Automatic annotation (TrEMBL):
Organism name: Paenibacillus albilobatus
Domain of life assignment: Bacteria
Molecular function terms from GO: peptidase activity
The UniProt record lists the keyword rRNA processing: no
Protein name in UniProt: D-alanyl-D-alanine carboxypeptidase-like core domain-containing protein
């Protein structure tokens, strides 16, 4: 009988202990405490500190020209590429494991040109021009780096909106179809090729010169259209004088020059003083152009402080015709043609 009593007591203790442990596990957490499951292993590996990539920054160093500026280089919400937006705060761990939406479609938004003969799909095989296929680049857009390391031929060189730089070149031997002589003064008298421009750009240049003269600023042309062979001669001369690295900061290689498009012209004051020289930046002519060129469809193609994006040093004399719509938008943001197009860039055939 005693044996059965001991066995029964032991059973009661075991059952009571089980109920006590179950009740403790079901007890609510303390006030204000949240119980979260730890992220899965794959989620833990995918988490990391978000990095803000600044325009023009490609070496990880910080400089004053690479800092984002309010109402200047930042794109409005929904703009192509989105690289100019300030970085968003990190999402909770559970959301970070989800793949990001692909916004690099190559299609333009907010009134920018959509995909057409000038702005097409990404290069063959889905790779970016940088060969990496992802990440922010030296141009301020996603998908390519503005260097000669990769080269693509633009699909529509006749487009007024064509982008030509160190990554995107014109077809070999390309000559614009409608070159004319704009009726404006030049610093030389010879009627040679470098007086020419595309018809639409020439008409806009005449209006720009007339408006400047009305404001007491007399401009003169320095160099307009330039053939690929002429660019080759100039570039090789610069290389012999200064070396390749230095030449690439101020002169385009053959096929990569905007002058070959017929949409570009270098200008100076009527006297020719400081023509295509850094001292032009402080002149009244340069100041007038900076303030008014966009009103006639021109942009300062290589702005100050943007050489890491455009690939070239500041050239206040270098005007590129893109039409008033694009010129006004670029001027209002103090940005560049590369940043304007973002990922919607001309591609190889």
């Amino acid at each position: 009988m005693r044996k059965y009593i001991v066995t029964f007591a032991a059973a009661v203790l075991i059952v009571a202990g089980g109920f006590w442990a179950w009740g403790k596990n079901q007890a609510p957490a303390a006030d204000g405490a949240q119980i979260e499951k730890p992220p899965a292993l794959a989620q833990q590996h995918s988490q990391g500190t978000p990095t803000t990539v600044l325009d023009g920054q490609n070496d990880g160093s910080a400089s004053s020209e690479n800092k984002p500026e309010q109402d200047k280089d930042q794109r409005p919400s929904g703009s192509v590429g989105g690289q100019d937006k300030p970085a968003k705060p990190a999402k909770p761990a559970a959301d970070q494991s989800k793949p990001a939406k692909n916004t690099n479609t190559g299609a333009a938004q907010n009134g920018k040109p959509s995909q057409n003969a000038s702005f097409g799909k990404t290069p063959t095989g889905g790779k970016s021009a940088s060969g990496t296929g992802s990440g922010s680049s030296k141009t301020g857009g996603k998908g390519f780096i503005n260097t000669y390391s990769v080269e693509h031929v633009v699909s529509n060189p006749k487009s007024i909106e064509v982008l030509v730089n160190k990554t995107y070149r014109l077809p070999e031997g390309y000559v614009p179809p409608d070159l004319v002589y704009p009726n404006v003064p030049f610093i030389f008298s010879e009627k040679v090729d470098k007086r020419k421009m595309r018809r639409e750009a020439a008409a806009a240049l005449e209006k720009l010169f007339a408006a400047a003269k009305k404001d007491g600023v007399e401009l003169a042309g320095v160099s307009g259209y330039r053939s690929e062979s002429r660019q080759k001669t100039l570039y090789n001369n610069y290389v012999q004088r200064d070396g390749v690295k230095a030449a690439d900061t101020y002169s385009a290689r053959p096929g990569h020059s905007e002058h070959q498009t017929g949409l570009t012209i270098d200008v100076s004051g009527i006297t020719g003083k400081c023509a295509a020289e850094s001292c032009f930046a402080g002149t009244k002519e340069a100041k007038w152009l900076d303030k008014h060129a966009h009103e006639y469809g021109f942009i300062i193609r290589y702005p100050e402080g943007k050489d890491s994006i455009t690939g070239y040093k500041y050239e206040p004399w270098h005007l590129r015709y893109v039409g008033t719509r694009i010129a006004n938008e670029i001027a209002s943001r103090s940005t560049t043609l590369e940043q304007y197009f973002g990922s919607a860039v001309p591609v190889s055939k």
